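tokens incoming
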């Protein structure tokens, strides 16, 4: 609707266009998602349904999930997990500290979304976000 009002052409959101874009290894201002896409497909083991087929087409080799788990392990010490309450990736994050080890901390930031803690502090930020940024690591 917005594009029609601006007399802009329709976006090509076809499967073929996506595969062509992801196959192009040239770095551009809009290509920063490609390394993340590769990692989610081949190393992390999660991929949104929309991207599952292109993932298998572009990276047909074996998945490295077992290797990633073996190399990094499932037990970790001295990590801080910042999880945001309204983050779409929250289901893949650690949301409580069940290790009983003091140096593993989980900070659940209420009322914030993905990457909010990475931005500069602003007066309008939620109190939980201000507090999380002050945690000494």
């Amino acid at each position: 609707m917005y594009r029609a009002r601006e007399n802009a052409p329709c976006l090509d959101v076809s499967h073929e266009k996506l595969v062509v874009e992801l196959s192009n290894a040239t770095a551009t201002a809009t290509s920063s998602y490609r390394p993340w896409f590769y990692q989610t497909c081949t190393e992390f083991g999660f991929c949104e349904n929309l991207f599952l087929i292109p993932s298998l087409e572009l990276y047909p080799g074996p998945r490295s999930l077992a290797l990633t788990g073996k190399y990094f392990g499932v037990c970790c010490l001295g990590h801080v997990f910042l999880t945001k309450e309204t983050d779409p990736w929250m289901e893949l994050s650690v949301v409580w500290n069940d290790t009983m080890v003091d140096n593993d901390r989980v900070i659940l930031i209420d009322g914030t979304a993905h990457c909010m803690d990475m931005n500069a502090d602003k007066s309008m930020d939620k109190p939980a976000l201000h507090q999380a940024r002050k945690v000494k690591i």
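note: The longest strand covers residues 80-84.
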